[in-house]
């Protein structure tokens, strides 16, 4: 999979990708899913249920403009596809009600379940979705249908936003904080940062800086507390194998490594970008809805 | 006899000196530094100066606050709950519910007509119901702290605040600013969010009148106004004594 970096405005690289080997004009059903998150937005176009193109961008201050941009950047890259060529668009995520051109909106819980089933296969039963401003533990069946879920969207602890704050505080790129924290793992892992709250955590981390702690050690203490919180949520919903991680933080080994080790469980791996799970799920729902609408199923 | 009450808070360290007639003879309030012991030393010296006494004149030292272990020479220690209750009862004898909102902690304490502690509730896990919320927001609104509270009273309409978490509220405030919501409305929304959290702590104990608010945030009239609305009750702030010094006063009185 060739990934083309469009720009690096923010701390993590934004991406727009298309599968050049596919010809969209041959497709029977062109479906689109847009996952408008609080921090990042993804748009996905699928041809007959196969991934064709996607974008992964930072959400701006306007939700509708961000959704326009997410889809617009893909269409621009494809060149000859217009929005009207897409048969059905489903919006999901935190800002889903602000996608003016979506035919329907579906909750991100349902979309992440469905998307994880596509990305990781039908054996996935527990999905941990770690997003910009929330944290979800989702149980799904073999078709990706949601059986149960728990979520935290009230508190920044254990979310991408919380990690951004700490990355800023330590002046380390968000893409590096995770791997840096593993430099002391597991043998010299310090005790976790004692407070859950990111605001209080900031004061505690400033204290550690003053004490002369190296940054890798501080990050290890921080990610240890993030992982503890994530595992607590997972244990409340009950972890059943296979286990998979989606969302932006799935790219942070500082969290994923610790979570897997604490659970004593290996997360499934994929060639897809796990941040796309919500948008892929939405695009799959879009395909099904289109087929239902046109009587094809 | 002179007793020094020392309240080592997460942001400020306060000292109150009382004599055997329960008169306040000196006070101080300085920012808590990295070195707590040094801060305590400085705060004490300032209080001595204001009272015109020296360390040798003090018969007893009583420490309270989150950093109370940083006063190794203290004759006794007092929990923050008791310090708040004792101090509040002294400055406001008809108080039955004390709400203390500090920089990093909030608590509600119920006292009876003799000033005994009957019940209490604490919150120190989350910044949302504490002065840290205001600290974080003032930076985004770029207004001085005292103006921030006052401007909430000028708000013409109610703008909802969805975030409970301070970190999420930061993003929300930025987007409110982007959509040109006036600062007084944003200030009111923020104060409403803090009051909502503080009220939920207070409701964990049976709230009885009079309700007295102490701690640094009691000086923020935007917060007091929001708390009145939130609790649907009259809320008082000490009128003759700085509300942030009340726990240090409670500590001093306990030593008599």
Name of the CATH superfamily of the largest domain in chain B: ATPase, nucleotide binding domain
Number of strands of chain B: 9
Rg of chain A:
19 Å
Oligomerization state: heterodimer
| Termini Cα gap of chain B | 8 Å
- The CATH class of the largest domain in chain B turns out to be Alpha Beta
CATH top level of the largest domain in chain A?
Alpha Beta
Strand order of the largest sheet of chain A: 1-2-5-4-3-6-7
Report on the structure:
The complex is a heterodimer of chains A (297) and B (256). Chain A is of the alpha/beta class. Chain A is 38% helix and 21% strand. Chain A folds into two domains: 5-121 and 275-293, ATPase, nucleotide binding domain (Nucleotidyltransferase, domain 5), CATH 3.30.420.40; 126-267, 2-Layer Sandwich (Nucleotidyltransferase, domain 5), CATH 3.30.420.40. In chain A, strand 8 and strand 9 form a beta hairpin. In chain A, helix 2 packs across helix 8 (277-293), helix 3 runs parallel beside helix 5 and helix 6 packs across helix 7. Chain B has helices at residues 36-51, 80-91, 131-141, 145-152, 166-178, 183-202, 221-231, 246-254; strands at residues 2-8, 12-19, 24-31, 60-64, 76-77, 97-101, 106-111, 117-123, 211-214. Chain B has two domains: 1-80 and 244-256, ATPase, nucleotide binding domain (Nucleotidyltransferase, domain 5), CATH 3.30.420.40; 93-237, ATPase, nucleotide binding domain (Nucleotidyltransferase, domain 5). Chain B is an alpha/beta fold and 256 residues long. Chain B contains eight helices and nine strands. The model of chain B has no long low-confidence stretch (mean pLDDT 95). The N and C termini of chain B lie close together (8 Å). Helix content of chain B is 39%, strand content 20%. The A-B interface holds A 38, 61, 133, 154-156, 161-162, 165, 195-200, 203, 207, 210 and B 10, 34, 104, 125-127, 132, 136, 164-168, 171, 174-175, 178-179.
